[in-house]
């Protein structure tokens, strides 16, 4: 299947920040912007310097002739600022999995760029997401995950219901022109798709109380024909028998795109960096298919020697969902990798491991499998941190693609360019 042109981006002149005016003080509040100017627009948000950096990569050049993006995409702090505004603060972003909030009153928190958020289910089981910020003096409300009947600010005790309403404003006697209905938590669009929880920080999208259909959500997040790509009976094959068994997190000293590039090199690095993994895969069978916003790499595995331990099953499938989410299916396992930028040269990668229900009590199999996975991750971390140091060297500016294997990487760079340049 050939690559399809990504959807039209938002107009470059669209206002960057949405402000809400309160009658009492004419105070302007903005989310998620860090700017205090209500005049800021998209056209002013990207400087000529950053625009030149973006335009230095040309996605229209054929892969066989194309150069990779310049090193400044990975080393300039100002480049990450624009990525946050134009990539991560727009459209649907994966932030968690459904088992985290299976039951009423359960919640989890997270951070995306400068946006602190909390996702929860209220007492009726309805799904909500909010900016995790008290409306009094900006303290964070909740941390980690768990179960609560309400959110109580640890700073001054302001209390909010799980539906976002302000239930109690301590010591508010004497306040003038104060309406508690105007001081509820700021909502964020949230939805579930399959086993995943998604949020949408787009300031031009008003949170929809009725929700969005699964088909519409899938097509917006994944592109056209989403159900065929990642649906229940799809290539990846989600099913209800998969249960979450472990979470591991890695803070890596590299730009978030370095980690994505490493994932998307078509197995190029596997025989050189992952000897154990390479011996379990038939790399000659490696295939790559690009869709709208998804790239799927697949590879057949080799039989276990002497009937020994083998966690991969008959085939390994690696799905990359633009811009930063990976879904890996092999044997009885499914794991996800969520890559979040922390700074221009540091990212957080969260691994969530799911296992077929019939094996969830097989501790020996689980530990041996996770030990093998951990070994691969440590090897990848060393590679990515080495690449970041090389990108920061004056000796390197751009590189080239290996045309037979790095198609998915080029697709990722092309999608990113489209998001950043404003089409």
Key attributes of the depicted protein:
423 residues, alpha+beta, disordered N terminus, oxidoreductase
Give the arrangement of secondary structure elements.
Layout: E1 18-21, E2 28-31, H1 42-45, H2 48-55, H3 72-75, H4 77-88, E3 92-97, E4 106-112, E5 115-121, E6 127-131, E7 145-147, E8 150-152, E9 159-161, E10 166-168, E11 189-193, E12 196-200, H5 214-222, H6 226-230, E13 242-252, H7 256-263, H8 270-273, H9 275-279, E14 287-290, E15 294-300, E16 315-321, E17 325-330, E18 333-343, E19 346-356, H10 363-391, H11 407-421
Antiparallel strand pairs: 1-2, 3-12, 4-5, 4-7, 5-6, 8-9, 9-10, 11-12, 13-19, 14-15, 15-16, 16-17, 17-18, 18-19
Enzyme class: oxidoreductase
Keywords: 2Fe-2S, Iron, Iron-sulfur, Metal-binding, Oxidoreductase, Transit peptide
EC number: 1.14.15.7
In short:
24% of the residues lie in helices and 26% in strands. By secondary structure, the chain is α+β, with helices and mostly antiparallel strands.
Structure notes:
With 423 residues, this protein is α+β, with helices and mostly antiparallel strands. The chain has eleven helices and 19 strands. The strands form five sheets. Strands 13-19-18-17-16-15-14 form a seven-stranded antiparallel sheet, with helices on one face. Strands 6-5-4-7 form a four-stranded antiparallel sheet, with no helix packed on it. 35% of the residues are buried.
Give the integer mean of the pLDDT values.
Answer: 86
Strand content: 25-35%
Helix content: 10-25%
Physical arrangement of strands within the biggest beta sheet: 13-19-18-17-16-15-14
Question: What is the alpha-carbon Rg in Å?
Answer: 23 Å
